[in-house]
Amino acid sequence: MKIIGWVEKLPEIENSEIVRYVLQKVIDISSRKTTQGHAVTTMNNSLKKLEEKYNFLKHVEIKDTRYIEMLDPISVMSDIDNVQINDVGKALYDIIKTINSSLGKNAGYFFIKELKNTIDEDVYTVLEEMGLDLGIMQLESEVEEMTRKL
Q1: Which residue from 41, 16, 20, 37 is spatially nearest to 99, judged by alpha carbons?
Q2: Mean pLDDT score across all residues of the chain
Q3: Which of 2, 11, 114, 125 is the most buried (most CB within 10 A)?
Q4: Quick one: DSSP state of residue 67?
Q5: For residue 10, is pLDDT > 70?
């Protein structure tokens, strides 16, 4: 039996799952470059600043769980699942860019590259559908760094 026109479709991943996943990766990576407390504080500050631009970020909560076991540090309400994917992609772009710049020159240089290399392929594909290309973000970061040096 031959199936014509069959294309493997990725499983449907909700916006809330993508946001939770990416934010967790960002916190994990930035925690290794600074501290867990600084990473969580920086993430919270970034979310608060960007809430004016992206109202739906009020549905994201980050908790410092260094002293609390068995608690998920990132809470993303399902309301985000109703937001247009390109808006979620823009918000994630701004969050990553903000965190990257807060890490400083040396730590931030490899941040986006490391994030790109640690994200699951399925999630990376969804991020690209959202308009977020970490490869392009890495190039932008490198161009900005070169421009600063000139």
Answers
A1: 41
A2: 86
A3: 114
A4: T
A5: no
What are the tokens at 19?
């946001």
Return the H-helix or E-strand segment holding 23: helix 15-33
Pairing of strands 74-76, 60-62: antiparallel
Could you read off the pLDDT of 70-113 as tens digits, one per residue? Answer: 567 899 999 999 999 999 999 999 999 999 888 776 566 688 98
Identify any residues that bridge with 60 across adjacent strands, giving them in sequence order.
Answer: 76
Q: Token pair for residue 3? A: 């199936």
Residues 140 and 150: their CA atoms lie apart, in Å, by 15
Residue 111 tokens read as: 């941040």
Report the C-alpha gap between 96 and 32 in whole angstroms.
16
Q: Where are the alpha helices (H) located in 34-149, listed in sequence order?
A: 36-50, 85-102, 104-109, 111-118, 121-129, 134-149
* Residue 125: both structure tokens together: 């594909």
In the DSSP assignment, the letter for residue 11 is P
Predicted confidence (pLDDT) at residue 2 exceeds the cutoff of 50: no
Contacts of 65 (CB under 8 A, 6+ apart): 71, 72, 73
